């Protein structure tokens, strides 16, 4: 017998996003289609205004497309009620932001625990999962520190631990290296690649950082809200790297 076919983790099908600005309809995305398999480490790339963050927000169910479908694990997001969508997002997806988005009054451990609290887990279970996630990112000795007591790289590690703690199917990272120096950015990318390989967690990045693009297994380029071929600047970089 042939093994059963594995469904793609993510399917974006003819997605368009339209908004009104100055009395004129503007298409931020124009009929975008994309398929992502489980375990991928991929990037959405493009210049500012290309639509990459808009697409990431749609995949993350933060925004709703004007038309088209987005399916995660075969489930069309448009069919979910708001309460179902919120729980689905909390359970299945992890988010990493360039500004870290940590709660300043909470400790490192409490920041990582917070999404688990929303899932209704017991305090004991939350503490165990959050502590394990912080150990994985090398912050096992910083559990009680507040974000203000951490470096930028350490704060991003906390954000990664928060995204990883609930063991999501998909992690969405919006310009995760934008506010980091080069050395710290390399360390963060090393960490995310390690987690991707060891835990088979799928990563989708929104970025124009060449360091991320060089490590991505696949890059989906956007320009003016449409899928495009790799710009010459990116293509040249790739040729140099492969030479």
Structural summary, described in words:
With 243 residues, the chain is of the alpha/beta class. It has a single domain, classed as Rossmann fold (3-Layer(aba) Sandwich). 38% of the residues lie in helices and 26% in strands. It has 8 helices and 10 strands. It has helices spanning 52-59, 82-92, 108-118, 123-136, 152-165, 182-199, 210-215, 232-242, and strands at 10-21, 24-36, 41-45, 67-72, 75-76, 93-97, 170-174, 202-207, 218-223, 226-228. The protein has a 6-stranded mixed beta sheet with strand order 6-7-8-3-9-10, sandwiched between helices. It has a 4-stranded antiparallel beta sheet with strand order 2-1-4-5, covered by helices on one side. A hairpin with a 2-residue loop joins β9 (218-223) and β10 (226-228). 36% of the residues are buried. Mean pLDDT is 89; it is low at 235-243.
């Amino acid at each position: 017998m042939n093994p059963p076919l594995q469904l793609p983790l993510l399917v974006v099908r003819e997605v368009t996003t339209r908004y009104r600005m100055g009395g004129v309809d503007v298409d931020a995305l124009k009929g975008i289609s994309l398929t992502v398999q489980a375990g991928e480490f991929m990037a959405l790339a493009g210049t500012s205004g290309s639509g990459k963050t808009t697409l990431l927000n749609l995949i993350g169910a933060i925004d709703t497309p004007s038309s088209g479908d987005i399916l995660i694990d075969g489930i069309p997001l448009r069919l979910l009620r708001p309460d179902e969508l919120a729980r689905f997002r909390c359970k299945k997806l992890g988010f990493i932001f360039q500004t870290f988005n940590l709660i300043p009054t909470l400790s490192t451990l409490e920041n990582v625990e917070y999404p688990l609290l929303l899932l209704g887990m017991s305090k004991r279970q939350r503490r165990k999962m959050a502590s394990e996630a912080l150990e994985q990112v090398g912050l096992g000795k910083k559990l009680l520190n507040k974000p203000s007591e951490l470096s930028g790289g350490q704060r991003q590690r906390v954000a990664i631990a928060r995204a990883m703690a609930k063991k999501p199917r998909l992690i969405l990272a919006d310009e995760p290296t934008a506010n980091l120096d080069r050395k710290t950015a390399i360390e963060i990318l090393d960490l995310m690649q390690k987690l991707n390989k060891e835990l088979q967690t799928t990563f989708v990045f929104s970025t124009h950082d060449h360091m991320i693009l060089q490590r991505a297994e696949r890059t989906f380029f956007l320009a003016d809200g449409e899928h495009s071929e790799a710009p010459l600047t990116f293509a040249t970089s790739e040729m140099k790297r492969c030479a």
